[in-house]
Amino acid sequence: MKPLARREGLVVRDLPDETIVYDRKRHQAHCLNRMAALVFRHADGTRSAAEIATLLAEGTPREREAVVALALEQLSQACLLDGPAPVPATARRAVLRHVGLGAALLVPAIASVIAPTPAEAATCVTSCVGQPNGTPCNCFAPDVPCGSATCVADSCNDGGGC
Amino acid sequence: MASLPSLMPWHAPGTRLLERIDRLRWSAGTCVCACGWRVGLRVNEPALLPQLAACLPPGWRPAASPAVDAVYSLWVARDRGGVRGRNRVYAGGERRASTPDLGHALAVLESEIRLGLAMAARGRTFVHAGAVAWRGRAILVPGRSRSGKTTLVAELVRQGALYLSDEFAVLDARGRVHPFAKPLSIRGASGCDRHTRRHAVEDLGGHSATRPLPVGLVAFTEYRERAAWEPTALSAGAAVLDLLAHTVPARLRPAESLHALARVVSGAALLKGPRGDAAQTAACLLRTVATAVPVAARPLGAGR
């Protein structure tokens, strides 16, 4: 089976040592280190995992195969592969056993975040509109201790209101 | 500051909710432009129109045409029989606030307009961050609300940095930060919105930057009691992910956002860690940006 990385619906941005991949469908951003990015690029549906492993410059053949297996597993978990990872899941610990300490750069890694909605990214004045009843809020009624107010039916229960 | 033109905004047909709001008796309106975004405001009390200028984002200009990209509405309620009426704020067809406190309604209106601009500004990427300038380079402090951004920005200004913004780092395609010098919103000791006070940067003895600047330092930090500023360096990729988490148009324009963020991190020191005292942290940040030669941390996954 020949792994095929997704190409549709992605924004890919290369940095000097890493690659950022933004998934427009899931609104997730992933940071791929050099090894994960290399496997992502070569997983084009024309090469098997073993063939991709031969393209890596570093490590022994056994290490390279383990690294490619781990990278494909991580890419699959990040939904960056079309279909499942084509090789059995490989525990990171097992790969690390295969990869020598001096070859730490070989280990693929992917970090991910969910992109915020505009409102999540920005400062908002607290408002009870649309909030579930009981949501703690800071409203604007005078002479009420801060933090004691909650939202009730789109308004503050402190007599102020949001 | 230019005076607000008296101009009732006109917008393209919208939702049924917006059409219902359109049918209310709006008696005064104005139209302005900021970063290529045309926005209209309308109220049912003409006397209130001059007060709306304080709700507009820095850098607004009067618009000549009533055609707008977005419309915001403030309905001021009258008290009846001793019962306080509720003022209502609408962003397009959505109700954003219903409150007897006019000051609160105006604060919501201002916040909503800034968010609208941050989403729609052409050629600009708005990142939720404090920003100052020191020796020709910008320091960004991205973070969530109530993470202590404004406190740190105010302290940086007191120590001589030029003010860019306490809310948004406004990036262009080259990764430079443009001034967005709204008054600093400093919350009371309780951290409560109700006790927020606005301070012009001059009140702090500082000045605003007047031109776009490249970024020299990005400091991801938030206040923690008794913490000391002992940051770790981030890789460029990790910093882009962290910045993206505070980027308003991240979902709307991911390619443009990533382009700007990649330019930011390419020339900046990238540090992360909790901070304690704002004055001590500010002094450290100023020293760092004055001496920093951008050295990216090892990329993600390097070493164990």
Helices and strands in order, then pairings?
The complex is a heterodimer of chains A (162) and B (304).
Chain A: E1 10-14, E2 18-23, E3 28-33, H1 34-42, H2 49-55, H3 61-77, H4 92-98, E4 110-114, H5 118-121, E5 136-137, E6 149-152, E7 155-156
Antiparallel strand pairs in A: 1-2, 2-3, 3-4, 5-6, 6-7
Helix pairs in contact in A: 1-3, 2-3, 3-4
Chain B: H1 16-22, E1 28-34, E2 37-43, E3 61-62, E4 70-75, E5 87-91, E6 94-99, H2 102-120, E7 125-134, E8 137-142, H3 149-158, E9 162-165, E10 168-171, E11 177-178, E12 184-186, E13 197-199, E14 215-220, E15 232-233, H4 236-244, H5 254-266, E16 269-272, H6 278-291
Parallel strand pairs in B: 2-4, 8-14, 14-16
Antiparallel strand pairs in B: 1-2, 1-3, 4-5, 5-6, 7-8, 7-9, 7-10, 10-11, 12-13, 15-16
Count of discrete alpha- or pi-helical segments spanning 4 or more residues of chain B: 6
Instruction: Give me the secondary-structure category of chain A.
Output: alpha+beta
Model regions low in confidence, pLDDT < 50 over at least 5 residues of chain A: 139-147, 158-162
Number of strands of chain A: 7
Q: What is the helix fraction of residues of chain A, given as a range?
A: 25-40%
What amount of the residues of chain A lies in strands? 15-25%
Low-pLDDT segments, ≥5 res of chain B? none
Range of helix content of chain B: 10-25%
